[in-house]
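May I ask you to review the protein record following this short note?
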Amino acid sequence: MKITITLLLITVFPALASPAFYMSVEEVLGLSECIFLVEIGMILDIPMSYMNQTQYTFHVLEVIMGADSLDDTYLTSYVANLGWFYTSQNGEEMLQPPLLRGSGYETTVEEGDTVIVFSSSQVDDSHQLNLFRIEPADSLESLQELLSLEK
């Protein structure tokens, strides 16, 4: 069903089918204030004209970097810019692909999944974080190796 909807959207909205350029984990480590292993709670997709926003709630299972021990539920959202069309200097309509800090995994997670969350904000009393990347939990060991090289 999800594949059918995706193919339909690509046919109807070609900007959604634009190639995206994803930053590597190494590139986003320097942008990360906090990294957590979490269990995803609620997921809410909010489509917009030039971007998609996905809101998540999650429960922290382990702090990997940047915060004290946490044992609460947090609200966060991920925003992905979509490709857009522009007119070049010679009058051609061109497609501008987005540059994404995410991994592409942000749109495939489901409620109950255990994943790694990268946040560009510190934890505060608001229980809201600025999420900019989700990685599968099975990449935890390689992430910890990268973090040990950073020190």
About this structure: The domain at 20-150 is CATH 2.40.50.120 (OB fold (Dihydrolipoamide Acetyltransferase, E2P)). Residues 10 and 17 are 5 Å apart (CA to CA). The first strand starts at residue 21 and ends at 22.
